[in-house]
Amino acid sequence: MSNSLKALDKRFAKRRQVYKPILESPFTNELNSWPHLKDQKFVVQLLKNTILNKCKHLNESSVPISQWPWDILINYNEIVSYLSKTEPSCNVILFVCNKDQDIPSILLQQIPILSYISKTKVTLVQLPKGSLDLLRDAIRDKDIDNGLLLIQCNDKLDSTFLTQIESQMDTNEQASKFPWLDNLQYKPTNIKLLKSTIPLQSKIPKKSQTPHQK
Amino acid sequence: MSLNREQREKFRDRQIREKYDMVHLIPSLEVPELSGLYLKSFYNASKKYQLQLPPSITDSNGKFCGNCGCVRVINFNLQTQLIERKVPDTNQSLRILKYECMNCGFKNEFKVGEAAVTIAPVSFSQKLVAKEGVSHNQKVDTKIQKKNSGKDRAKKRKQNSLSNMLSKRNEEKKNQKKGLSLSLESFMQG
Q: B53–A113: do the CB atoms touch at under 8 Å?
């Protein structure tokens, strides 16, 4: 993009014009669709120290992702199908690079909705700008280009890591509510079977109705 | 009674927000047939007030289905899939996000990016050596390419100017003269 004065002016002018109040509606709550963190830098450092640095070593010694010491998913389709399960499964932390411009917004648009209506408890963590390069550097797989990293919170994951991440989540109740999605969660239909009987005898054909007599 | 500016804006905000909330309420009412109607009403209102909506709302086929107008909610009325498709005659493949609306069956495709060309596995030691070299080279390459593109354009522009063409012609004439003198010398020597 050119850095001429005119181009800059255009860019900022466009920004000013956008009508924002619509996103503040408490019903849709789009402004808070990505949960806020208390200290983003701390979370990035934590992720780097606990997970990414080890990933880097594992990568260099060419250990496949399936054999890593945690259960990690980075493929978009796999993550979506994991969160779409109709029965609750192991809690997860989902790291998303939603600030990086390399990732088109259309790809991540449904992620907050998915993690909200999912039966699985998802801790959605948005990473600051530039985190995609960190992930790319640690996990050398083309799937990481989507900027998604899902870690299952089972015994393999350090429990202090989990508590530290959770303590960084903004606990403002209003911020994490999306009333318009509340009725859209998957609910299994409650089917009950009723035992009944029917007579074995075949039905007697009805008598033809007599015409109305005047 | 006419409203002043502040009151007008308040009225506008409320109206727009109500319409937007209605659009989002439709999926839970389970009457998806109405979604197009309400979305149109919302869009018309924003047009009437000449509002520039955020791109997350206006991106075509993104937030709303382009055919029936329902708000997309994954697993409720939307199925997504990310696929890779090879571009014919090249090594590259494109990453494509497929959307399918479960209300009307409308299918969409979004180009998400180019998938990296698969590289043959390299041993660890080779990688280490290559990494430093490649990263350095890449940086240099990109810089040169960027500079070239700008300068090339400038050069092309310059080449078409009148003074340039004149100087070119002059040089050609000089060359011709030189050629003559050389031929004379060679003649003398011979």
A: no
Structure tokens at B157: 């522009």
Residue A77 to residue B118, Cβ atoms within 8 A: no
What is the C-alpha to C-alpha distance for residues A9 and B101, in angstroms, rounded to an integer?
A: 39
At B182 the three-state DSSP class reads helix
pLDDT 10s digits, A53-112 = 888 888 888 888 888 888 889 999 999 999 998 888 889 999 999 888 888 889 999 999
Q: Do B21 and A183 touch (CB under 8 A)?
A: no
The minimal CB distance from B115 to the residues A14, A142, A184 is found for A142
- Domain A38-168, what fold? 60s Ribosomal Protein L30; Chain: A; (3.30.1330)
Instruction: Name the amino acid, one letter, at A118.
Output: S
Rg (CA), chain B: 32
A18: which chain B residues are within 8 Å (Cβ-Cβ)?
52-55
Beta bridge partners of B96: B83, B111
